[in-house]
Prior knowledge:
CATH topology: Spore Coat Polysaccharide Biosynthesis Protein SpsA, Chain A
Shape: globular
Number of domains: 1
Largest sheet: 9 strands, mixed
Distance between the termini: 23 Å
Oligomer: single chain
Helix content: 25-40%
Number of helices: 10
Amino acid sequence: MTGGSVLVVIPARFGSTRLYAKPLADLLGRPMIQYVYEGALKAERVAQVIVATDDERIEKAVRSFGGEVILTSREHSTGTDRVAEVAKQFPHPWIINLQGDLPLVHPEMLDALIDPCVTEKVVMGTLAREITEEEELLSPHVVKVVIDSDGRALYFSRSPIPYLRDPAATGMILPRTFFKHYGIYFYGRDFLFEFTQLPKGRLEQMEKLEQLRALEAGRTIRVIETRRESWEVDTPEDLEKVKGILSRGGRV
Length: 252
Protein backbone atom coordinates (compact mmCIF):
# COMPACT_ATOMS: atom_id res chain seq x y z
CA MET A 1 0.00 0.00 0.00
CA THR A 2 1.19 3.51 -0.73
CA GLY A 3 0.54 6.58 1.34
CA GLY A 4 -2.22 9.03 0.55
CA SER A 5 -5.38 7.05 1.30
CA VAL A 6 -5.74 7.26 5.10
CA LEU A 7 -7.20 10.20 6.96
CA VAL A 8 -6.60 10.44 10.71
CA VAL A 9 -9.19 12.42 12.64
CA ILE A 10 -8.56 13.24 16.30
CA PRO A 11 -11.78 14.06 18.17
CA ALA A 12 -11.03 16.58 20.92
CA ARG A 13 -13.83 17.60 23.24
CA PHE A 14 -13.22 20.40 25.72
CA GLY A 15 -15.48 19.05 28.43
CA SER A 16 -14.23 16.17 30.56
CA THR A 17 -15.60 14.92 33.85
CA ARG A 18 -12.29 13.62 35.21
CA LEU A 19 -9.78 16.07 33.74
CA TYR A 20 -10.88 19.61 32.88
CA ALA A 21 -9.98 20.83 29.37
CA LYS A 22 -8.08 17.58 28.78
CA PRO A 23 -6.86 18.26 25.19
CA LEU A 24 -5.19 21.46 26.40
CA ALA A 25 -3.55 19.89 29.46
CA ASP A 26 0.04 21.09 29.72
CA LEU A 27 2.76 18.54 29.02
CA LEU A 28 6.17 20.15 29.39
CA GLY A 29 5.02 23.40 27.84
CA ARG A 30 2.87 21.98 25.05
CA PRO A 31 -0.82 21.01 24.98
CA MET A 32 -1.55 17.29 25.01
CA ILE A 33 -3.38 17.47 21.68
CA GLN A 34 -0.13 18.58 20.02
CA TYR A 35 1.64 15.36 21.01
CA VAL A 36 -1.20 13.26 19.59
CA TYR A 37 -1.29 15.25 16.37
CA GLU A 38 2.46 15.16 15.79
CA GLY A 39 2.64 11.45 16.58
CA ALA A 40 0.00 10.70 13.94
CA LEU A 41 1.63 13.00 11.40
CA LYS A 42 4.84 10.94 11.52
CA ALA A 43 3.10 7.72 10.44
CA GLU A 44 4.23 6.71 6.95
CA ARG A 45 0.82 5.41 5.85
CA VAL A 46 -1.11 8.52 6.89
CA ALA A 47 -2.05 11.11 4.27
CA GLN A 48 -3.63 13.77 6.46
CA VAL A 49 -4.30 14.51 10.13
CA ILE A 50 -7.15 16.74 11.33
CA VAL A 51 -8.33 17.63 14.81
CA ALA A 52 -12.13 17.66 15.15
CA THR A 53 -13.21 19.81 18.07
CA ASP A 54 -16.28 21.42 19.58
CA ASP A 55 -14.46 24.36 21.14
CA GLU A 56 -12.78 27.49 19.83
CA ARG A 57 -10.05 27.29 22.48
CA ILE A 58 -8.90 23.94 21.17
CA GLU A 59 -9.19 25.22 17.60
CA LYS A 60 -6.94 28.17 18.47
CA ALA A 61 -4.39 25.95 20.20
CA VAL A 62 -4.14 23.57 17.23
CA ARG A 63 -3.73 26.42 14.77
CA SER A 64 -1.01 27.91 16.98
CA PHE A 65 1.25 24.88 16.43
CA GLY A 66 0.40 24.67 12.72
CA GLY A 67 -2.08 21.81 12.88
CA GLU A 68 -5.20 21.28 10.78
CA VAL A 69 -8.43 21.62 12.72
CA ILE A 70 -12.15 21.73 11.97
CA LEU A 71 -14.79 23.08 14.34
CA THR A 72 -17.64 20.57 14.53
CA SER A 73 -21.11 20.44 16.01
CA ARG A 74 -21.46 20.47 19.78
CA GLU A 75 -24.41 18.11 19.56
CA HIS A 76 -22.38 14.95 18.92
CA SER A 77 -22.70 12.32 21.62
CA THR A 78 -19.53 10.40 20.68
CA GLY A 79 -16.12 11.04 19.20
CA THR A 80 -16.99 8.82 16.23
CA ASP A 81 -19.86 11.14 15.31
CA ARG A 82 -17.38 14.01 15.30
CA VAL A 83 -14.96 12.00 13.15
CA ALA A 84 -17.71 11.18 10.66
CA GLU A 85 -18.66 14.85 10.29
CA VAL A 86 -15.09 15.66 9.29
CA ALA A 87 -14.63 12.58 7.08
CA LYS A 88 -17.62 13.59 4.94
CA GLN A 89 -15.62 16.62 3.80
CA PHE A 90 -12.74 14.54 2.40
CA PRO A 91 -12.47 11.70 -0.16
CA HIS A 92 -10.19 9.30 1.75
CA PRO A 93 -11.38 5.66 1.55
CA TRP A 94 -9.94 4.79 4.98
CA ILE A 95 -10.32 6.77 8.20
CA ILE A 96 -8.69 6.38 11.60
CA ASN A 97 -10.34 7.69 14.73
CA LEU A 98 -7.42 8.46 17.03
CA GLN A 99 -8.44 9.34 20.57
CA GLY A 100 -7.04 12.69 21.69
CA ASP A 101 -5.91 11.36 25.07
CA LEU A 102 -3.00 9.25 23.72
CA PRO A 103 -0.09 11.72 23.82
CA LEU A 104 2.50 8.93 23.62
CA VAL A 105 1.05 7.31 20.51
CA HIS A 106 3.84 5.99 18.28
CA PRO A 107 3.54 6.38 14.49
CA GLU A 108 4.46 2.72 14.06
CA MET A 109 1.25 1.84 15.91
CA LEU A 110 -0.80 3.52 13.19
CA ASP A 111 1.19 1.96 10.36
CA ALA A 112 0.88 -1.47 11.98
CA LEU A 113 -2.90 -1.04 12.11
CA ILE A 114 -3.29 0.34 8.60
CA ASP A 115 -1.34 -2.23 6.59
CA PRO A 116 -3.29 -5.41 7.49
CA CYS A 117 -6.64 -3.62 7.65
CA VAL A 118 -6.25 -2.23 4.13
CA THR A 119 -4.86 -5.51 2.79
CA GLU A 120 -7.72 -7.51 4.30
CA LYS A 121 -10.26 -4.82 3.40
CA VAL A 122 -11.75 -4.90 6.89
CA VAL A 123 -14.60 -2.55 7.71
CA MET A 124 -13.36 -1.85 11.25
CA GLY A 125 -10.12 -2.53 13.07
CA THR A 126 -8.33 -1.56 16.26
CA LEU A 127 -5.13 -2.11 18.27
CA ALA A 128 -4.37 -4.10 21.41
CA ARG A 129 -1.32 -5.02 23.48
CA GLU A 130 -0.84 -8.07 25.67
CA ILE A 131 -1.29 -7.39 29.39
CA THR A 132 1.46 -8.77 31.61
CA GLU A 133 0.86 -6.85 34.84
CA GLU A 134 -1.90 -7.68 37.30
CA GLU A 135 -2.40 -4.03 38.24
CA GLU A 136 -3.24 -3.15 34.64
CA LEU A 137 -5.55 -6.14 34.28
CA LEU A 138 -7.58 -5.16 37.34
CA SER A 139 -7.73 -1.41 36.62
CA PRO A 140 -11.15 -0.11 35.53
CA HIS A 141 -9.35 2.65 33.64
CA VAL A 142 -7.87 0.08 31.24
CA VAL A 143 -10.22 -1.31 28.56
CA LYS A 144 -9.67 -5.00 27.89
CA VAL A 145 -10.52 -6.97 24.75
CA VAL A 146 -10.99 -10.71 24.24
CA ILE A 147 -9.75 -11.89 20.83
CA ASP A 148 -10.65 -15.05 18.93
CA SER A 149 -8.19 -17.31 17.08
CA ASP A 150 -8.62 -15.34 13.85
CA GLY A 151 -7.82 -11.98 15.42
CA ARG A 152 -11.36 -10.72 15.79
CA ALA A 153 -12.78 -9.01 18.86
CA LEU A 154 -15.21 -11.05 20.92
CA TYR A 155 -15.89 -8.47 23.63
CA PHE A 156 -14.57 -5.27 25.24
CA SER A 157 -14.85 -4.34 28.90
CA ARG A 158 -13.21 -2.41 31.71
CA SER A 159 -13.57 -5.57 33.78
CA PRO A 160 -10.74 -8.13 33.77
CA ILE A 161 -11.87 -10.43 30.95
CA PRO A 162 -11.82 -13.35 30.38
CA TYR A 163 -12.75 -14.26 33.94
CA LEU A 164 -10.12 -16.40 35.64
CA ARG A 165 -12.08 -18.85 37.76
CA ASP A 166 -9.14 -20.31 39.68
CA PRO A 167 -6.26 -17.79 39.81
CA ALA A 168 -4.58 -19.60 42.70
CA ALA A 169 -4.13 -22.73 40.62
CA THR A 170 -3.16 -21.19 37.27
CA GLY A 171 -1.56 -17.85 38.07
CA MET A 172 -3.18 -14.46 37.55
CA ILE A 173 -1.53 -13.59 34.23
CA LEU A 174 -1.67 -16.25 31.53
CA PRO A 175 0.37 -15.74 28.34
CA ARG A 176 -1.54 -14.57 25.26
CA THR A 177 -4.83 -14.31 27.13
CA PHE A 178 -5.38 -10.75 28.39
CA PHE A 179 -5.16 -7.74 26.08
CA LYS A 180 -5.31 -3.99 26.64
CA HIS A 181 -7.31 -2.10 24.05
CA TYR A 182 -6.09 1.22 22.63
CA GLY A 183 -8.54 3.92 21.54
CA ILE A 184 -7.45 3.82 17.89
CA TYR A 185 -10.06 2.73 15.34
CA PHE A 186 -9.68 2.01 11.64
CA TYR A 187 -12.80 2.34 9.44
CA GLY A 188 -13.66 1.70 5.84
CA ARG A 189 -15.34 4.89 4.70
CA ASP A 190 -18.81 3.43 4.10
CA PHE A 191 -18.87 1.57 7.40
CA LEU A 192 -17.88 4.66 9.38
CA PHE A 193 -21.04 6.41 8.25
CA GLU A 194 -23.09 3.23 8.73
CA PHE A 195 -21.73 2.88 12.26
CA THR A 196 -22.96 6.31 13.29
CA GLN A 197 -26.48 5.31 12.22
CA LEU A 198 -26.55 2.03 14.16
CA PRO A 199 -28.69 2.14 17.31
CA LYS A 200 -26.90 2.07 20.64
CA GLY A 201 -27.39 -1.36 22.13
CA ARG A 202 -27.64 -2.45 25.73
CA LEU A 203 -23.96 -3.40 25.94
CA GLU A 204 -22.74 0.03 24.84
CA GLN A 205 -25.08 1.75 27.24
CA MET A 206 -23.95 -0.43 30.14
CA GLU A 207 -20.19 -0.39 29.52
CA LYS A 208 -20.02 3.11 27.94
CA LEU A 209 -17.79 1.68 25.20
CA GLU A 210 -19.06 2.64 21.75
CA GLN A 211 -17.16 -0.13 19.90
CA LEU A 212 -19.61 -2.58 21.46
CA ARG A 213 -22.25 -1.11 19.16
CA ALA A 214 -20.56 -2.79 16.20
CA LEU A 215 -20.32 -6.16 17.94
CA GLU A 216 -23.88 -6.07 19.17
CA ALA A 217 -25.01 -5.33 15.61
CA GLY A 218 -23.17 -8.42 14.39
CA ARG A 219 -20.26 -6.62 12.73
CA THR A 220 -16.64 -7.76 12.91
CA ILE A 221 -13.79 -5.79 14.49
CA ARG A 222 -10.30 -6.89 13.46
CA VAL A 223 -7.78 -6.59 16.30
CA ILE A 224 -4.13 -5.99 15.44
CA GLU A 225 -1.57 -6.66 18.14
CA THR A 226 1.21 -4.23 18.95
CA ARG A 227 4.11 -4.42 21.37
CA ARG A 228 4.22 -0.66 21.63
CA GLU A 229 3.10 0.79 24.94
CA SER A 230 1.04 3.93 25.25
CA TRP A 231 -0.99 5.52 28.02
CA GLU A 232 -4.42 7.08 27.93
CA VAL A 233 -4.78 10.24 30.00
CA ASP A 234 -8.08 10.09 31.87
CA THR A 235 -7.16 11.49 35.28
CA PRO A 236 -4.73 13.99 36.84
CA GLU A 237 -2.70 10.98 37.99
CA ASP A 238 -2.40 9.76 34.38
CA LEU A 239 -1.24 13.21 33.34
CA GLU A 240 1.52 13.22 35.94
CA LYS A 241 2.63 9.76 34.82
CA VAL A 242 2.94 10.90 31.21
CA LYS A 243 4.82 14.02 32.28
CA GLY A 244 7.33 11.80 34.05
CA ILE A 245 7.78 9.64 30.94
CA LEU A 246 8.30 12.66 28.73
CA SER A 247 10.74 14.26 31.14
CA ARG A 248 12.83 11.09 30.96
CA GLY A 249 12.96 11.28 27.19
CA GLY A 250 10.10 8.95 26.42
CA ARG A 251 8.40 10.04 23.19
CA VAL A 252 7.30 8.81 19.82
